[in-house]
Amino acid sequence: MTVARQRPASRLAAPAARPVEHNSSGRFLLRTLFWSGLAVALLPWWLGTGTGSIDTAADLFQSAGRVTGLVAGYLLLIQVVLMSRVSFVERWIGARHLGLWHRELGGAVLVMILTHAALITVGYADADRVGFVSELGTILTEYEDMVTAFLAAGMLVCIGLLSIRGLRRALPYELWYFLHLTAYLALLLGFAHQFSNGQELFRPGFGRTVWIVFSAVTAAAVVWGRVVAPLRLNLRHRLQVADVVAEGPDMVSIYITGRRLDDLDARAGQFFRWRFLARRYWWQAHPFSLSAAPNGRWLRLTVKTVGGHTRQLRRLRPGVRIFVEGPWGDFTASRRVKSRAVLIAAGSGIAPVRALLEELPAGAVVIYRAGAVHDLHLRHELEHLAELRHAELWFVVGDRRDPGPRRLFTPGGMRDLVPDITERDVYLCGPDGLVEQSLTVLRRVRVPRRQIHLDPFEF
């Protein structure tokens, strides 16, 4: 069945800021820096490869191996910078694009590393006139730092395989997160062989200096984004649990207080990585979105029970200290390009959508998909906000095979519910099935891509 409710406009809604056009200058600048950096990274090979120096098959394989090695090393450094959580990188790229770049470069890193290892081994084997396996054994036993380099390559291959969506979902979040962080260890293990065996880097000179600078910049980004900035944030605000409120049998809200919250640079729709400093909690940090717009007095996150850690959160006690990293994400009102919006949510996705409703312009349409009426969490808050913000609130309840839900996720059904949907921003947050189904319908009704905003806090 479908339950729909439209709240009357009984009071004036607060004015909203004018739409902000997407600014792609940051992404253009970073792309320019990326390609310029790659050119500089390859310059030592270009300067060191004289005319006529590649005249045999062995020379060709070895030269191609050196190029792919330099490309692999450079891409790995870029990957680490993307993982470093330096705030300006996310602001310039945007959280969605940051996730896309991270995934695409991850695949390229693996291809380049494996290609580099294969080409170098084949080139050396051809020059020594021995078999591939024999040459591989020689490289591992006689070349300095090669064992750790091969170990690093193996670790990165494992990380890449575990990042495949199907495999990643099968792993507990904590395990996947810690395995992903081993990329830093892989970088350290593979670092030495570049300077001890790299044809372009083992001698003092331009190439070695450039790569030392690249490595130092990467290390500085990691230290700043992962250590210094979080420490400053937590020392300034000293967050702690104020209250824990059950929103239902499988959902809980955690209210958080601290110092100088009015100075916290956070927006509705963003998320933090939360680490509760209590027994059984302190060793895990999970990403949860704010479920209410920051108000200078308290923060709130609303968590759906999906595993052991989230189940334990309802047993938190007031006064527990919290260590956070963030805020992150561009699933915010500032990303809109139109004067009105549509918000589509299901499951735990209702938390950031409920917060966004406070900051988006009046006249938004909220579509809340649930399997049953008792799954409509934060319902009374949504109804109150809908009245305050002159918003239409639609509850779409029932099995996906029921006529109402089936009708909604068709071009005709979406247009019936929101006739001017092509003139609105669309915010999507919820299970993958809902997001993919919604994206299919939005493409069919020709909503421009720049008006569609996703919440990508998995990265």
Number of helical runs? Answer: 15
Strand content: 15-25%
Q: Roughly how many Å is the radius of gyration?
A: 26 Å
Bulk shape: elongated
Order of strands across the biggest sheet?
A: 1-10-9-8-11-12
What structural class do helix, strand and pairing data support?
alpha/beta
Task: Please describe the biggest sheet, giving its number of strands, its sense, and whether it closes into a barrel.
Answer: 6 strands, mixed
* Number of distinct beta strands: 12
Order of helices and strands: EHHHHHHHHHEEEEEHEEHEHEHHEHE
How far apart are the first and last residues' alpha carbons, in Å?
35 Å
The parts where pLDDT drops under 50 for at least 5 residues are 6-22
Short summary of the structure?
It is built from 15 helices and twelve strands. The protein has helices at 25-48, 57-83, 87-93, 95-128, 132-142, 146-162, 165-170, 173-197, 206-237, 308-312, 350-359, 379-388, 403-408, 411-417, 432-444; strands spanning 3-6, 240-248, 251-257, 271-276, 286-289, 299-304, 322-328, 341-346, 365-370, 392-397, 425-429, 452-454.
Commentary on this structure:
This protein has 459 residues and is an alpha/beta fold. The protein has 15 helices and 12 strands. The chain has helices at residues 25-48, 57-83, 87-93, 95-128, 132-142, 146-162, 165-170, 173-197, 206-237, 308-312, 350-359, 379-388, 403-408, 411-417, 432-444, and strands spanning 3-6, 240-248, 251-257, 271-276, 286-289, 299-304, 322-328, 341-346, 365-370, 392-397, 425-429, 452-454. The strands form 3 sheets. Strands 1-10-9-8-11-12 form a 6-stranded mixed sheet, sandwiched between helices. A 3-stranded antiparallel sheet has the order 2-3-6, with no helix packed on it. A 3-stranded antiparallel sheet has the order 5-4-7. Strand 2 (240-248) and strand 3 form a beta hairpin. The longest helix is centred in the first third of the chain and has 34 residues, at 95-128. It is elongated and about 75 Å long. The model is unreliable at 6-22 (pLDDT under 50).
